[in-house]
Amino acid sequence: MNIDVNLPALIIVVPLFSAMFMVAAGVFYRKIVPFIFQFVSFLTAYFSFLLLFRVYKTGPVRYFFGNWAPPLGIEYYVDYTNILFVVIIASVFFIMSFYFPKIVNNEIDEGKTYIFYSITTLFITGLLGITITGDLFNIYVFTEISSITAYALIAIGGTKKSYRSSFNYLILGTIGASFVVLGIGYLYMATGTLNLLDMQQRLVPMYNSKIVVVGAAFIVLGLSMKMALFPLHSWLPGAYSHSPSAISALMSATSTKVMAYVMIRFLYTVFTPKFDVNVIPIQEILFIISLIAILAGSFMAIGQKDIKMMFAYSSVGQIGYILLGATMLSNNGLVGSMYHFLSHAFVKGGLFMVSGIVFYSLSTTKIYDYCGLYKKMPLTSIAFLIFTLSMIGIPLTSGFVSKWYLVVGAIDSGKWIAVFVILLSSLLTAVYFWRVVDNIFFTKSESNNSDVIKEPIAMVIPTYIMAGVTIYFGIFTNDLVAFAQKAAELLMETCK
Amino acid sequence: MIIDFIIGKYNYLAAIILMLIGLYSVIINGNLIKKVIGLNILSTAIILFYISVSKVKDGSAPIYARDVIRYDNPLPHVLMLTAIVVGVSITAVALAIIIKIREYYGTIEEDEMAEIDINEEIVDKK
Amino acid sequence: MKGHIVLKMATRMMVPFILMFSLYVLAHGEISPGGGFQGGVIFASGFILYGMVFGVEEIYRKIKRKILIFMTAFGVMIYSGVGYITMFNGGLFLEYAKLPGLNMKSGNSMGLLFIEIGVFITVSSVMLLLFIEVSKKYDN
C-alpha cells in the first residue's frame, strides 16, 4: 500500500474501521477494547503528523475518492489551515486516550464501555472528516456523524440531567444542521457543484443573486447554532456539565471549534471576503456578535457554582475569540484565531481533565468543595494553576500568544473596540478563575480532613502533557506562527 | 402577479411552509415526542426541497431505461438518501433518550420536568 | 393479536417471500431502485413481522443479541474493508477498478455489490436491534 498517497483517506478510514472493530471485538472480549482505542488514537495522530510534514513540504494536497475527479467525485482537500486543525484534534485525541480508561471504568457501566470507546472513536472520525473534506455535503454528513455520537455520549452519563441536556442538544443541533444543509442546497441550486474550490469560482459572478444570499444566511445561522455562538449557546452548558468527565474534556477541546473552522472555511474559501463585506455584511455582524459573546460568556461564568458549568460558559466566550480573529480580515487576526484554537483546545481540555481527576477522587464538581485542594492533591492543583494562567493570558503560556496576535490583528484593521474587549475579558477571566485558585490554594477546607489523597497517576500524566504543550507553545512560538501565517496568507488570497 | 409568483415557485413555497410548520411544532410543543415529530417534518421539508430542485423539464426518473432521452439530476436524490438515513438515526437516538427520560422523570412534558428539577434544587439547598 | 390462527398462517407464508424479495432488491441495487439500505430494511421488516405476530421472545430465541451487535459492526467493516483492499492493491480508497482480478467494468459492478452487502448487513441488524431493544422493555 502506498501510505503516502493515501494519507488523507487513512486519517478518516482508520478510526472509522476500528470503531466498528472495537464493537466486533468487544462483543466477545471486552478487556481488549481500551488497548485498541489507544492504538487507533496513536495511528491517527501518526498519520496526521505525516500528512502535516507532507503538506509543509509540497503544499496543499488533493485526494480524490475512488479516483473520480472533483466535480463528479468527492475530494479531500488538505491545505495549511485544515491540516493544523486535523493535527490538533488527532493529538488531543491521542493524549486523552491515555486519560480515558480509568475514568471510564469509574463512571460508565461495565457492559457499556466497549460501545463507549467505539462511539468516541466515531465522534473523532466525524470531527476529522469535517476538517479534512473538500465537499460541502460531506461536511454535513460528517457533522451529523459527530453530533449523533455526541448526543449518545452525553446521554451515556446516565443521570437525569444528562438525558435532558442531551435531548436539548439534539433538538438545537438538528435544527442547526438542517439549516446548514438547506443553505448548501441553495448554493447547489445556484452553482450545480458541491466542491469547495469549484463552488468558489462559480459563485463569483453571481454574488448579487438572491439565492446565494439566502443560502449564505442559512449556513451562517446554522453554523452559529452548532458552534454555540452567544445567543444560540443554550445547549452548551448543559451538554458539557452533565456529560461524563472524559467526554466533556474531549468535546470541549474539539467539537465547537471544528464548527468555527467550518465557519472560517465558508467565510474565506466558499464565499470570499468580497461577498462577506460588500454584498451582505456578514463579517461585520459576526464581529459584533463575537464581541458580545466574549463579554457575555465571561460575565455568565462569574456567577457559577459548579466548576464544569463555569468552564462551559467560559467556552462560550472563547468561541467568540476564535470567531473574532476570523472576522477582522487581517492576517494577524487569522493567525491569532488559529493559535487560539490550539491554545484553547489544550487548555480547556486540560481544565476539564483536572475537574475529572477531582471528580474521580472526591466525587464533587462544586467550586465550594475545592477549598484546600492543594493540601490534598498538590499535583492536580498545580496543573490547574498552569491552565488558569494560560486562560488569563499570562506570558510564557500559549494563551498569551494567541491574545497577542488577536490584539495585533485588531490594531491592524483599526478595530480598537476589539482591543478593549479582549483586555476587559482577560480581566474578567482572571476574576472568575482566581476565585477557584483562591479556594484551592489559600482557603482552608472546613472538614479538617486534609490527608493527602493518592492521585491517579495514569490520569495526572496526560494532564501534565497537555500543560506542557501550552507552555511549549507559549515559549517556542516561531514555527507555529510561521505556519499559521502561511495558512492565513492562503486564506486571505481570495481577498485580492 | 402574485398568482404567477405562487405558480412559478410553488415547490419552494411548499418546502418553506413545511419547514416553518416543523420549526413551529419544535418550539411550541412541550411534549418531547411532538418535538421529534416536528424535527421529522423539518427534515422532510428539506428532502422535498432538494428533490424538487433536481427536476429537469421533460426529464424521467434517473433510472437507466432504453427509450429515455433526458434524466433528472440524480445527485440530489443520492444526497437525500443520506439525509433520510441521518433523519432515521436522529429519530432513533431521540426516541431512545425519551424512553430514558420517561423512566427517570415519569413524564415527557417539558414544564413538568422543569418543575421536578426546581423542586429538587430547593431540596438540595435545604 | 397473538395466537390468531389466520395471522400466524399468513405470516408463515409471507415471511420467506419478504426475505427473498429483500435479496432481490439488494442484488439489483446498481441498475434499478434499491440497494443495500432498502434491502436491509425489507429483510429486517420480515423478521419484525414475525416478531409482532409470534412475540419478540421468538426472535430473541432465534437470534442472539450479541450476534446482532457483531453484525452491525461487521457490515461497516466489509464496507471499509473493500476500501482497504483497493488501497493495498495500489489504488485509492474505494477505487473499484483496482479490486484484485477485476477490471474497470466488472470491478465497478462487483465493488458496488460488495459494498451494498455491507450496508445490507448493517442496516438489517440495526433495524432488528432497534425493534428488539424498544419492544423488549414494554413487552411484559
Concise summary:
With 126 residues, chain B is an all-alpha fold. Chain B has helices spanning 2-8, 10-28, 32-53, 74-105, 110-125. Chain B is built from 5 helices and no strands.
Task: Explain how this protein is built.
The complex is a heterotrimer of chains A (about 500), B (about 130) and C (about 140). Chain A is mostly helical and about 500 residues long. Chain A has one domain. Chain A is built from 21 helices and 2 strands. In chain A, strands 1-2 form a two-stranded antiparallel ribbon. Chain A is globular. Chain B has a single domain (about 1-60, about 70-125), classed as Helix Hairpins (Orthogonal Bundle). Chain B starts with a helix and ends with a helix. In chain B, about 25% of the residues are buried. The mean pLDDT of chain B is about 85. Helices cover about 75% and strands about 0% of the residues of chain C. Chain C is elongated and about 60 Å long. In chain C, about 40% of the residues are buried. The interface between A and C is medium-sized, with 22 and 22 residues.
Overall number of domains of chain C: 1
What sort of overall outline of chain A do the alpha carbons produce when their principal axes are compared? Answer: globular
Share of helical residues of chain A: over 70%
State the end-to-end distance of chain C.
14 Å
| Count of individual beta strands of chain C | 0
Task: Using brief descriptors, characterize the structure shown.
heterotrimer; B: 126 residues; mainly alpha; Helix Hairpins; 5 helices; C: 140 residues
Topology:
The complex is a heterotrimer of chains A (about 500), B (about 130) and C (about 140).
Chain A (H helix, E strand, L loop, with lengths): L2 H26 L4 H26 L2 E4 L10 E4 L1 H18 L2 H8 L5 H20 L3 H20 L4 H32 L4 H8 L6 H17 L8 H7 L3 H26 L1 H8 L2 H21 L4 H21 L3 H32 L10 H4 L1 H15 L5 H15 L3 H27 L14 H19 L2 H15 L4
Chain B lengths: L1 H7 L1 H19 L3 H22 L20 H32 L4 H16 L1
Chain C lengths: L4 H23 L8 H19 L1 H7 L2 H24 L15 H35 L2
Helix pairs in contact in C: 1-2, 2-3, 2-5, 4-5
